[in-house]
Structure formats: structure tokens, C-alpha cells
Amino acid sequence: MAIAAAILMSSPASAIEVQSSCLGAAAVCEGGSTAAFALIAQGRPAILAVDAGDLPGVGRAADDVRADLARLAGGTASPDTTIIAGTLGHNPVIDRLVREGRLDVSGVAGRWEAFVQQVVEHPAPGIERALVIAGADRRGTIFGLYDLSERAGVSPWAWWADVPVPHRPDLYVTAGRRVEAPAVRYRGIFLNDEDPSLKGWVDATYGGFNHRFYAKVFELTLRMKGNFLWPAMWGKAFADDDAESPGLANAYGVVMGTSHHEPMARNQAEWTRYGKGPWDYTQNADVLRGFWRKGIERLGSNEALVTVGMRGDGDKPMTEGSPIQLLEKIVADQRKIIGDVTHLDPARTPQVWAIYKEVQDYYDHGMRVPDDVTLLFSDDNWGDLRRLPELGHTRAGGYGVYYHFDYVGGPRNYKWINTNQVERIWEQMHLAHAYGADQLWIVNVGDLKPMELPIQFFLDYAWNPDAWPVDKLGDYTRQWAAEQFGAVHSAEIAELLTRYTQYNARRKPELLEPTTYSLTDYREAERVADAYEALAAKARVIRAQLPPGYDDAFVELVLYPVEASANLNRLYVTTGLNRLYAAQGRAATNRTAVEVKALFQRDEALTHLYNDEVAHGKWTHMMDQTHIGYTSWRDPKVNIMPKLQTLALPAAGALGVAVEGDARAWPAAPGAPRLSFDRYGAASRYIEVFDRGAGPIRYAISGGAPWLRVSDPEGDVGEQKRLLVLVDWSRAPTGHGEASLTVRGSDGTAVTVAVSADNAAAQVSKDGGEAFVEGDGYVAIEAAHYARAVEAGGVGWGVVPDLGRTVSGVTSFPVTAPSQAPGAGAHLDYAVILTKGGPVAVQVAVAPSLDFRGKGGLRYAVSIDGGAPQVVNLEGDPSKDAWDRSVADNARVLVTRFPTVVAGPHVVRLWRVDPGVVFERVVLDLGGVKPSYLGPPESQRLGAP
Questions:
Q1: What is the CA radius of gyration of the chain?
Q2: 297 with 344: CB under 8 angstroms?
Q3: Which residues on neighbouring strands pair with residue 908, listed in sequence order?
Q4: What's the rounded Cα separation, in Å, for the pair 221 and 459?
Q5: Which pLDDT value is given to residue 1?
Q6: Which residues lie closer than 8 Å to 438 by C-beta, 6 or more apart?
Q7: pLDDT per position as a tens digit, 73-88
Q8: Residue 358 burial (C-beta neighbours within 10 Å; 0-12, 13-18, 19+)
Q9: What distance in Å separates the CA atoms of residue 219 and residue 254, rounded to the nearest whole number?
Q10: How are the residues of the chain apportioned to helix, strand and coil, as percentages rounded to the nearest 5?
Q11: Cβ-Cβ contacts under 8 Å for 805 (sequence gap 6 or more)
């Protein structure tokens, strides 16, 4: 057995802490015991021994782990302790330990990619105690090695995100045995839509997409227990661009494929380079068969998952009305080629058929492929699964899922930055796992770099879904943050990661407009921009507190996405204000124009920080993707400054007045401005006084009523000033009250604002419990704030924390339970109190989930009190426009109308009908809901402590 150790210089000490309690078998911890194995002792790591005759990839991974341990320890390997790693049947020492009954490989032997880590006493002469890592196959061994490294403190992102390796002079592995194996057979990533960012970086760093670049991708994939790759394909051809790349993938142990629309191990770019005639099987079958044959011949003995089928050239649909018989013949001919080349039954070569876009229509209309071919279902390119296997159905090739973190196409490209919630990935892939899609999970990761957190979650969840049930989902991001930055700030960093992805998922940055969020109602736009800025401020504080060695990683993984997202949202909100102010004639119009220009420049500065300053320019071009100024689904060639307005101001000051909830301004607008108050509505409203000229102006407010207060009744306007108006409800007249406030300017302008106040007492809830009360003409409730969650028929409810646009999502479990009759199954009760009677429109916001069972749409039902449930289909409007809105808004808001509901306490009930519906909000509109993106703020809850 060859024993070698590679030593690297250690990185600066870090605050990352490993498990200190030493609980569990084969746990890595800093405290030792008499039965523990010394992984690192007094700054010297154990020797890592592998057999020179082991399978390809094992020795390479061992070299990486030796280097990892040396960096952790800070010293040379000690001859006193030994790690023995190898593959069953390919390592004599391990095989002997198995024969002697000293290494337990139950649950490992013969199990795809399984490994065991076990502390063994006296495994060989001269070795008192060893940690033995044994894999069922070569990737099992590789994963067992990298798993040890990660648990010891080396992040998979050490190179790809510049995460420091901490100094750990003493680490131990507890006694016992630990076994792991994947739940999903093939787990991988797809580098796609890679121009300009990834391409720019690769060209500058490696001179192209060659084997030196892919070596880094292979290692990263394996460190995260992935095993599969679709390579970059925008004008690129993995095997044709560099003949060394395919063999290197096999040497590493990575299974290669070609994307959903690139059959027979050939990239689309190869047809562009070498193809002759049309990409049309009805006209050019012989040429296409020859083209495909060369792809299979080139595979040789390399591990691969071969894509079969055919789409139109350039990832487009085939000719309209392409017959299913033709497509089935294409697959049959492709399989004949595979059999002819390999001289084996084609079923011996793993194959996949991607049921993507229009191909699903062919599948739904009866197209079928042989049973050994994996059926790869897809999402809608926006993270919503279109179809899953019928529950309980199996096939030899199994089922898989093609998912997206990035997309080029309608309603708009999203390529720039991470907008993917871990929580939504969990909810959708939990469905996939539960319904038996466990042969292949592949995710489009775009440029890779901006997607570090969702990539690792996707692969971790594919490896072991049972490790992350919904009640532990909140722990994942905290643990991930601790792995990158240490335990001290992990909770704060996790909150930043969770919140910025939730905010970005509300509406992807490329879809933002100056009026996305309401500028006049619910203070929505300013609340959104302020929430982003609060994250950015917190990120800056944490950055200053982290040791300097973590700065590059923190900028890449946290600070840049948070700061850049906050800046972009502020840019669009300020652009919206600029245009609103111009229409109102405010002098502040000119200042907001200057602010937008500064925010645009700030975006450029942040891009420069990432591309040119972080890690001494290591990631040049990686943030080149444009993201400002979309006018169609395509990204603009360069970021485009929004159109701004400026005003030529008169020299003298002039008073203007605007009120909350109205885009108009006075004295120019017709009619009188009005502020309406409700005892259970917004706590305050505002009047904004502003200057319409260049000179100074003062204001004073008169009138009002004893129950009405103004925060600053007189003073200098300056450029503009917001005055809060509040009602003292203890002094307000019972029922309805009216008053007026007159705003006078030193220029002689006078504007009278009408004020009304509804002071109706709410009737208490029937059961005396908590209830949300109507205010301002609506009741708004977060779905997670139900009064009761009622189980029925073995179906219950669970909250998916942070899922959705506002607070959390609520969905039914188990997700495999059959549909229930409306009004007879599990339900959620929401206690409400209406202060006025009349017609009610119940708006239910749900995640934009699709009919993954193919049964005509996902349904729920709504009832009030004991009334008959009204059934709602999430895809009741099947139009493309409706789908465009749902993915752009990242929600569907569905309305159920009840013509007459009397004042008083009521129970709104959401009935579970079909699995997979995720509730996010419930809003009862009694005529008061104003236009906004996220909906009105949550209502007051009476009876709450």
C-alpha cells in the first residue's frame, strides 16, 4: 500500500467551530476520548493511505484530502495515526478487515455510491487504531473522503468562493460506524446561459472551456457529493473544444451528459461546426445518424448518461405538429446506434429523455420510450414543476427532474444573481422525492458563481432528503453560513441570506420597474427599499467584524448580492419617485434624478468590487451580466440608465401638498385631498408639503379637531417634509367623524385636506379567541397565522418557513395523500371580525405551483362560517398571459366572491382539495384594498397578547 502526504501552507485561523460535544458515531470534534481517533493531534494530521491499484479518482481525491488536512493542521503528517481509504474489492487491507469481520460493510456493499467511516482497532501491523473509509464503488470512496474533509472544516467552496480553511490543531473522530448513500442516483449541475459572465471569466483565466477549467468544476461537484454534469453549451462543445476533457471527467469520477436538447453525446455547437443540411430527421436522417454515431463512438468506456430524443435546432420546438411516430422512430434509431457501437443491448447504456417544454405535450398525447430510459420531467423554467411520475409507478430507467436557477426566455431572462429561495427548492423537490423522481436531479445553474447556496442545498437534498424535514429547514442556511464563516455570526449571516433571497424572489431583478411597488399606497415602495437597505447595513457591520481572511468570501457570498440587490431596488424606487415628483411639480424631482445617477454608478462600483478587487481580481468578468434597463425578454447589451426627468424651477418658493394614497398634488389637482382613518387600520397617514420652486417656503397647519394630531404643524418646508397625521381614538367620536386641516404656505397658498375617521367598535370573536379585524376596508392575514389547522383523513398542515413573498407558506402533508372532497378534508381556519357588512372578495395568494399530477389543475376551496365551499383551480386561467403573470409575480392571487357577509365575527376556511397547494396570504376585500404588489399590510389581531 502506497502512503503519501501532500502538505500546503495553512490559512489564517478562523472562527469556524466543529462539533464539540462529540455525539454520534464517527463524529468529527475537537474533544478527544480514549476511544477516539486522532485525525489531527498537536498540529499534525494523520497519514492518509490508499492503494495504488484502486479505481480511478480515488487517488486524486485522497491527494485533495491530504492537502485539506495539512491546511487544517498547519503541520506535516504524523506517522502515529493512519486513515485507510479504499474501494471494496480494490483495497487488500480493507478487504481483509471485511473478511475478518472487523469492518462492517452491511448497508454499503453493492449499494450505489455508499460509504462507511469506521474507527478500527489494530487494522494492520504497527497501526494501533485507524479511521477506515470504505466505498461500495469508486465514488463511494471519493465521497467518503470529501465528506470527512468537509466535516473537519474545509468548505467545498474553499476555492470557488475563497472560503478560508481554518486552523484546527486538534481534531478527533469518535468511535463507531457511520454509513451514507444517496437517495437520488444522478445528481448534477448544468452550466448554461454562460455568456457573458462565466465565459468572460473562463476566457480570461483558462483561455477557454478546456480541461483545466473543468477540473475545478469536477472537484467542486464531487466535494458536494454530486456526480453528474451537463457542460456549458452556448457555442461550446465539451469534447470537441478540448479532447482531454472527457477522459479527465472519467478520471475524476464524474458522469457526463449533454443537455436536454443535445442528443447522443454531441453538443449543438458541433452541428453548427460540422453538420451538413437541415437539422430535420424527415429530410436529413442519414447525415444525422452519422453525426450521432460519432458521439457514441467518442464516449468509449467513459461513464455517461446519454440524452435521446430530438428538439428543433437551437433548443427550439420542432416543426409545428411533429408527429409522435417520427419522434419514437428517432429514439428507436438512436438506440440502434448505441447498440451497434457498444455491441451490447442498448439498455446497458444509461439514457435519458428530457420531457421539456413542448415535449411534455408529446408525452401527454401518448409518446413513449423504452422502459430502461429515464424520463426527465422539467419545471416551467421558473422553479415550478410541471409533471411528476404517477404515484407508485415505476420503470427500469426511473424518473428525474430538470430544474432551473437561471433561465433565458420569457417573460424575461433572469441570469444576474441568486433569486432562488432554499425554501421553494425544498418544497418542489420534496414533491419530486415523494413521488419517486429519484433517478436524476439536474439543475441549470447559469454561471455557477452567483448560485453557491442553492447549488449546495440542491445537491445536499438530493443526497439525503430525509436529513432536512420541514421542521429542520431553518437550520440548513445557519449551518451553511457556519461552514463558510464560523459559528459566531452564522445566525446573522443566515438571516441575510434567507431574507435577500426572499426579497429577490418576490420579483426577479430583471423584472423590476419604477412602479413595481406602489409609490402611493401602504408605503410599499419605501418599505421594500428600506428593508433591503437594512440588510445591506447589517452586512456592512458583519463584514467589519469578521477576520480579514474572510473578506473575499463574505463579499462574494453575502455582501455583493445583498448590496447590489438593495442598490438596484432603491434605484428603481427612486426612479419611480422621480417621475411621480415631476408630475406633482416637486423641486425634489431634480434631486431624485441625481440620486438615480449615483445609484447607477454605485452599481458599476459594486460590479468593479466583485470583478476586479475581490481576491485580487480572481473573478474578473464574473459579474458582467447586464441587469438594468430591460425592454423585452432579452437582456440589454449594456446596463441602461432609466429615463429621468428634471424641472426648471422658478426662483421663488411655492407650496405644494400631497397626501398618502393619492398620486395627485395640490393646489393644481381638482377636488380636495382626503385622508381616511379607521380605528383598526393604519396607525397614521401622512401629508407631504413640498417646495415647487428654488426659494425657501414655510407652512402652517390650522383647523383639525381635538382627536386629530399632526406631527409637525408648522415650520420650514425645505425641499419637502412628511407630516404624520394621527387619531386619538379615545377622543374620536363614536361611529363616523369628519374634520379638516388647512395647510397654508408663506407664499399665500392654502390647501384644505378633508379627514374622516371611522370609530366603530368591533364585535368580539365568538369563541373569545384572537381574530383579525377589518380596518381600512380589508382584513389581511399571513397564511401562517391561522387560528386552527385541522387534520382530516390522515392529512395535516405544515409551515414552510420564509417561503413566499411575505412571511411563510403553509401546505398540506403528506404531499402524496390523495385529493379530498371540498368541505370534507383538512382545513385552515382564519378568525376575522368585520366592522361592516356587505360583499366580500376573498383574495388568496398561493405559490405559482403547477398541476404536477396532470389531473386538470391544483385546487383548494374557500368557505365562510358554515357556508358551502367554493372550489378554486390554480390554473383556472390556462392562458400564457396568466402564466407569465404568475411567474413574474412569483404568486397567484385568486379571488372568491361572497355577495353578502354581515358585520361581526366569522371564520374563513381554506379547504385542502389537492396536494401541492402552498398558501401564502388571505385578504378579505370589502372595497378598501388599494393597488399594490404585495398586498396590504397584515391587519390588527384582537385578543393577541
A1: 31
A2: no
A3: 830, 864
A4: 9
A5: 35
A6: 183, 184, 185, 398, 399, 400, 432
A7: 999 999 999 999 999 9
A8: middle
A9: 9
A10: 30, 25, 45
A11: 502, 505, 506, 845, 890, 891, 920, 934
User: Closest by alpha carbon to 849, among 917, 802, 920?
Assistant: 917
The answer to whether the predicted template modeling score (pTM) of the entire model surpasses 0.85 is yes
User: Three-state SS for 233?
Assistant: coil
Q: Give CA–CA dist 428/916, Å, rounded.
A: 9
Q: Letter for the amino acid at 418?
A: N
Q: At what angle do helices 560-584 and 524-545 cross, to 10 degrees?
A: 150
Report the distance separating Cα 214 and Cα 189, nearest Å: 13
Predicted pLDDT at 762: 83
Cell numbers found for residue 894: 385568486
**CA distances to 59, 775, 834, 865, 939 from 900, in Å:** 74, 18, 12, 13, 21
Number of alpha carbons in the 13 Å side-chain half-sphere of residue 108: 29
Asked if residue 9 has pLDDT above 90, the reply is no
Cβ(305)–Cβ(350) below 8 Å? yes
* Sheet strands side by side (includes 714-716): 674-678, 750-759, 735-745, 698-703, 714-716
The verdict on whether omega for the bond into residue 411 sits within 30 degrees of 0, i.e. cis, is: yes
- Give residue-wise pLDDT tens across range 214-258: 999 999 999 999 999 999 999 999 999 999 999 999 999 999 999
- pLDDT tens-digit map of 400-422: 999 999 999 999 999 999 999 99
Length of the chain: 945
Residue 943: pLDDT band (50, 70, 90) is: confident
Query: What H or E segment, with its residue span, contains residue 129?
Result: strand 127-135
| Average pLDDT of the residues of the chain | 95
Instruction: Quote the percentage of the chain above a pLDDT of 90.
Output: 94
- Residue 608 CB neighbours (<10 A): 12
C-alpha cell at 660: 398618502
User: Which residues make Cβ contacts (< 8 Å) with residue 598, sequence separation at least 6?
Assistant: none
Q: pLDDT tens digits, residue range 809-822? A: 999 999 999 999 99
| Backbone torsions φ then ψ of 882, nearest 5 degrees | -65, -40
What lies within 8 Å, CB to CB, of 530 at 6+ separation is none
Residue range 459-475, pLDDT digits in tens: 999 999 999 999 999 99
Q: Do residues 416 and 627 make contact, with C-beta atoms less than 8 angstroms apart? A: yes
Q: For strand 78-87 and strand 127-135, is the pairing parallel, antiparallel, or unpaired?
A: parallel
